[in-house]
Design goal:
The protein is an all-alpha fold. Helix content is 69%, strand content 0%.
Length: 180
């Protein structure tokens, strides 16, 4: 299931050659703020609000680590953007497994869990939007991780899972504050 999810998302990015840099006005803001972070200016204030910062810092991290073109093959030099998209595909693929397991925890039925996985597989943000540097995919993934561990902590009365769910909740909140 993980490999199927991963390869299908890679297909959307590579084979369909989706232009992930146009069509979304938020993308410009993401790139401006991640560049700003790299230049040492950590003020993310936008007019009347301060956005959840983790997405901007993740983009800045990938720009910092993979910013220079890496010549692995002469005809193809991946950029930080490519590495970020691979990271996003990895997260989405992992979240598909967690969604399957979360559904199994709730319904205690493999068939229903498989149906949930298939719906998630065809869900537009996990396919088409994977080629964009939007917050939504990472928010969605960490929200699924949070729900899984939170429910598992309630079922098993396990403090480790509760602690892990609290960390995942915090990560999710710092990607997009809508979780509140």
């Amino acid at each position: 299931a993980f490999i199927i999810f991963f390869i299908s998302r890679l297909f959307f990015i590579k084979i369909l050659n989706i232009d992930g840099s146009s069509g979304y006005s938020d993308l410009f803001r993401y790139l401006v703020f991640s560049d700003q972070i790299l230049n040492g200016d950590f003020n993310l204030k936008i007019d009347l609000y301060i956005p959840a910062p983790l997405h901007y810092y993740m983009l800045a991290f990938f720009q910092y680590v993979f910013g220079a073109k890496i010549s692995v093959l002469p005809q193809y030099s991946p950029s930080w953007w490519d590495f970020y998209l691979y990271f996003q595909i990895l997260l989405l693929s992992l979240s598909s497994i967690y969604l399957f397991e979360l559904t199994r925890l709730i319904f205690k039925n493999n068939s229903i869990a498989l149906i949930a996985w298939v719906i998630y597989f065809f869900y537009i943000p996990t396919s088409w939007f994977v080629a964009f540097l939007l917050q939504e995919n990472n928010f969605q993934c960490f929200l699924i991780f949070f729900f899984y561990y939170f429910l598992k902590s309630l079922i098993n009365k396990n403090l480790y899972h509760l602690f892990l769910s609290a960390i995942l909740f915090s990560i999710t909140f710092h990607i997009k504050s809508h979780i509140l």
